[in-house]
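Please, structure for the following, as tokens.
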Amino acid sequence: MNTAKNTLKSISTDLLVARRQELTGSLPLLDQILRGSLITRYVKCGKANCRCASGQGHPSLYLSSLHEGKTRLVYVPTSWEPWVQQRLDNFHRIQDILGELAEINLELLQRRVQD
């Protein structure tokens, strides 16, 4: 359902309430979220004979996040990438769902609909 502000006015109250219930039920588990971004850093290991000495470096994956006003980098083992990415995706899904829920609730308030 497209819930742009103008579109909400044309949707019946029953459908808005049903969409709100659907959104609430689709929220990811709140204990399975991370905020930040996955980044790749290229680090030189310092070994004179290593290929990275004259090249780009070894790729290392990090979670970059803001913590108490400072950027924090946490190393992410390659095998953990899907786990971390899923939690980052969950965070963004929750943000999107909360935005849509807030729009629906505002429209219901304007219609004077209470739970």
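Residues 5-110 form one domain. The chain has one domain: 5-110.
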